[in-house]
Amino acid sequence: MWGDVNWSGGLSTLNSPMENAMVSLFKKHTSTHTPPTQSTHMTTMTTPTVIDLFCGIGGMTHGFVKEGFEVVAGIDNDETCRYAYESNNNSARFLLQGIEDVTGETLLSFYSQNDIKILVGCAPCQPFSKYSQGKPLSSKWSLLKEFGRLIESIQPDIVSMENVPGLVKHEIYDEFVALLKDNDYHTSKNIVYCPDYGIPQKRTRLVFLASKKGPIKLIDKTHTPDNYKTVRETIEVLPKIADGQTHREDRLHRAAELSELNKKRIRSTPEGGSWKDWNESLILDCHKKDSGKSYGSVYGRMKWDEPAPTMTTHCIGYGNGRFGHPEQNRAISFREAALFQTFPTSYKMFDSSESSPLKNLARHIGNAVPVELGQIIAKSIQKHLVEYYGE
Ligand SMILES: C[S@@+](CC[C@H](N)C(=O)[O-])C[C@H]1O[C@@H](n2cnc3c(N)ncnc32)[C@H](O)[C@@H]1O
Questions:
Q1: How far apart are the CA of 58 and the centre of ligand 1, in A?
Q2: Average pLDDT of the chain?
Q3: Residue nearest to atom 12 of ligand 1 (CA)
């Protein structure tokens, strides 16, 4: 059945000497975590153990889980993320709390005394994103400070902070880096273009890494423009659906219904095209003005042989960006968005016992760190662990 196709590359195959050494580092530990009681750990263990701040539905966490890490907790203030987070990530617990209310003691209660403490997080990026230009700064900026506060409080061995690249232009980023340096961390700033790592999406992200033990950096790129993973490789195999339709075997393969006017519009849009290809009668008044001409990709269709555009929280809406299917007359489905975010098809996204189970799904998927980006970060940390903690 098409739903069983293995969509997610081969990132979790461990086979280099470095990776094999990492396997033995992991095997030294038994998997007896039962946070927060800590009663079952032997004192000689040094298990690399992860807590994920701002965990959402677990894109980052799942990347670590796929690479063999023990993730003990994810923290987020949105209860609607709990089901997917806890249903897909072994025994990782979802803690419903605002990061501003989390104490160092809370975090330490999840780690065991001799764990290699790994703290990862992705403070909400909306205030920095270019889709928010011109809007007043929100209080969410301060969440990076809260991340820093928790680092200072528990002194984790390794930190990863993911965000939009624009963050580096802001004073709050400089303060965050200075705080880590003052606390004796080695740091690296990496601007990641996701296609360079085989992710089928033109997403660019800041991945900041820090370690107490020694220099830490992101692993080398795995792809070049001639073998970037494309829209075609990611979604062409899915069955055709019409706008407003849900595939009978996959509730996530569901496309938003289009108005009659938008049906005309998408039929007038070639692969890779946008509203700029329409005749005058279809064009919105706002796009006729000079100020609207810069929104070149809205009502756009994707190109088959390129990576997809960045998935957003509105990525299943035809008018919200270049989210039109390359040839079918509809926007992308939830399933297609999830595949561009490299979630495995087996990832349980919603609780079918809820009355409107898909209500928050586009937001959850668009907010997520691509699972394979989580894997790249996890692999980078594995490499560092072998270099600085391996035998
Ligand atoms: C960009 S998403 C994180 C995605 C997630 N790290 C992943 O890997 O899929 C940001 C998350 O921060 C959460 N959030 C926003 N404000 C928060 C706060 N004050 N405390 C905790 N979580 C918060 C949101 O609910 C959202 O799930």
A1: 10
A2: 86
A3: 54
For 126, the token pair is 């909306």
Asked if pLDDT for residue 230 goes beyond 50, the answer is yes
Measured in Å, residue 334 CA sits from the centre of ligand 1 at 20
The pLDDT score that the predictor gives to residue 291 is 56
What's the predicted TM-score (pTM) here?
Answer: 0.87
Say if strands 116-121 and 48-53 run parallel, antiparallel, or are unpaired.
Answer: parallel
CA gap 379, 387 in Å, rounded: 12
- Predicted pLDDT at 294: 59
The C-alpha atoms of residue 367 and residue 209 are separated, in whole angstroms, by: 21
CA of 98 to the centre of ligand 1 (A): 9
Q: Is the pLDDT of residue 355 over 80?
A: yes
Mapping DSSP to helix (H, G, I), strand (E, B) and coil, where does residue 189 land?
Answer: strand
Q: What is the pLDDT of residue 309?
A: 97
Q: Where are the alpha helices (DSSP H) in the chain?
A: 17-27, 59-66, 82-88, 104-110, 143-154, 171-182, 231-235, 260-267, 285-288, 334-340, 361-367, 371-389
Residues 127 and 135: their CA atoms lie apart, in Å, by 8
pLDDT digits (tens, 9 = 90+) for 245-259: 999 999 999 999 999
Q: Which of 51, 52, 54 has most ligand 1 atoms within 8 Å of its beta carbon, as the pocket-test mutant? A: 54
Catalytic one of 81, 125, 194, 315: 125
How do residues 296-319 score in pLDDT, each as one tens digit? 678 999 999 999 999 999 999 998
The full set of domains in the chain, from first to last, is: 2-227+369-389 (3.40.50.150), 231-367 (3.90.120.10)
Query: Ligand 1, residues 51, 71, 77: which to mutate, most atoms within 8 A of Cβ?
Result: 77
| Residue 125 annotated in active site | yes
Measured by CA distance, the residue closest to atom 10 of ligand 1 is 124
Query: What residues are in contact with ligand 1 under a 6 Å CB criterion?
Result: 54-60, 76-78, 81, 98-100, 122, 124-125, 143, 367-369
Q: Is the pLDDT of residue 3 over 50?
A: no
CA of 374 to the centre of ligand 1 (A): 15
Q: Is 370 left (phi over 0), alpha (psi -120 to 50) or beta?
A: beta
